[in-house]
Design goal:
This protein is of the alpha/beta class. It is built from 6 helices and 7 strands; from the N terminus they run αββαβαβαβαββα. It has a 7-stranded mixed beta sheet with strand order 1-7-6-2-5-3-4, with helices on both faces.
Length: 196
């Protein structure tokens, strides 16, 4: 995977300090820690209902000392912002090639030498959705890594890492259990969430 802000010495330390301070001043609380078997994992990013989710996710990642990569639609990676978005951990996604994306993500996780947490929003969009996409599930099962239930609750101003979820292979049953975990959490625009 490409180099990011999270493995850039000096900048990482400064931005971690800024993130801790900013979140404290604005009333946010960060909970949880990366589990021992989560150094390589897929982090479910839910609920995803606003562009504000990205800066908050980056700050929470600094606080928790994560090494995240995240997926974003290809349009936000156009020049002159491509280099910056990639440095922030971004991976451009073409919606029409979702299967290739799953396969490429699996290979990237397997090939990574060090820690790598891939953040995947199951809703895949900030507009109203009725169903979650299952790409995150297939990436985790294909790479043989756990899912970590990461959350951001704008109502209570709490974000962090919840429990580890090991996929059983029964997508339908697992999705019911995963979505039940997220039901109490409210995104910035909760009416757009697929869990409410």
């Amino acid at each position: 995977m490409h180099r990011t802000i999270f493995d850039t010495p000096g900048v990482n330390t400064l931005l971690r300090g800024f993130s801790i301070l900013f979140l404290k001043i604005t009333g946010w609380k960060v909970e949880g820690t990366l589990p021992p078997d989560g150094h390589k994992s897929v982090l479910i990013a839910a609920p995803h209902t606003s562009n504000w989710d990205l800066p908050y996710t980056l700050m929470v990642a600094f606080v928790l000392r994560l090494n995240i990569y995240w997926m974003g639609k290809e349009q936000i990676f156009k020049p002159p912002f491509r280099g910056l978005m990639m440095w922030l951990g971004g991976i451009p996604v073409r919606r029409e090639s979702a299967n290739n994306l799953v396969a490429a993500s699996i290979e990237a996780i397997k090939a990574a030498d060090g820690p790598l947490q891939l953040v995947v929003p199951p809703e895949g969009t900030r507009s109203k959705v009725r169903y979650w996409k299952s790409g995150f599930y297939y990436i985790a099962t294909g790479a043989g890594v756990p899912l970590v239930l990461a959350y951001m609750d704008y109502e209570r101003k709490v974000s962090g890492l919840g429990p580890v979820f090991h996929p059983t292979g029964d997508l339908e049953a697992d999705m019911v259990r995963i979505q039940a975990f997220y039901a109490p959490y409210k995104g910035k625009n909760p009416e757009q969430s697929g869990t409410h």
